Amino acid sequence: MRIDILTVLPKLLESPFNDSIMKRAQENGHVEIHVHNIRDYSTHRQKSVDDYQYGGGAGMVMTIQPIADCIEALKKERAYDEIIYMTPDGEILEQVTCNALSMVDNIIILCGHYKGVDQRIRDIYITKEISIGSYVLSGGELGAAVLTDAVVRLIPGVLNDETSALSDSFQDGLLAPPVYTRPEDYEGHKVPDVLLSGHEAKIEAWRNEQSLKRTKERRPDLLEGE
Ligand code: ADE
Known about the structure:
The chain is an alpha/beta fold and 226 residues long. The protein folds into 2 domains: 151 residues, SPOUT methyltransferase, trefoil knot domain (Alpha/beta knot), CATH 3.40.1280; 57 residues, Trp Operon Repressor, Chain A (Orthogonal Bundle). Helix content is 29%, strand content 19%. It contains 6 helices and 9 strands. The strands form 3 sheets. It has a 5-stranded parallel beta sheet with strand order 2-1-6-5-7. The protein has a two-stranded antiparallel ribbon with strand order 3-4. Strands 8-9 form a two-stranded antiparallel sheet. Strand 5, helix 3 and strand 6 form a beta-alpha-beta unit. The model has no long low-confidence stretch (mean pLDDT 95).
């Protein structure tokens, strides 16, 4: 899979992909992540990437030209399955979307800044608009990092059996059960007996029960319609 991220702040995207699972996924050839500085595509004499908004109002708007030129240059090289715009008014990111995106070959992720991009960029190029939650960030970069991480870890082969995504929260429509490691007894706070029993069927049943309990308590919306 190949992910091209378009941003005016490429530095913000350096560290999230240079450690741990994301780093290994790139080293092992499961994913190529390319970060493009939109400013490099600006034909403006001062390399500007934003301008005042028509109709007035506070805040700058990202101009069409550098973004369109960057997207066109990428599209000349390969076909893209999705061109995604990170924006607080997009669809809220859910695990099902991550699952679907982990199966495609090439995606572009456009990060908005200031008041966002000129609407015509959205009309002409964008195939999907994603928000990572009902709050406003200073820009789309952190959202793009969240989306990329959530998608890349699902690419077959990226996680091994031990870190398998199959036991993640949401993957079966439920939150994950509690987990414990050594010591068995921490100042009187004990690991549940069943996890020490060695009885696989009982452990599995306990985990399912805990998953359901947690989901009912914390995210009853996930159980609606069942
Ligand atoms: N850009 C600003 N806020 C955002 C959000 N909540 N999700 C995605 N991109 C954003």
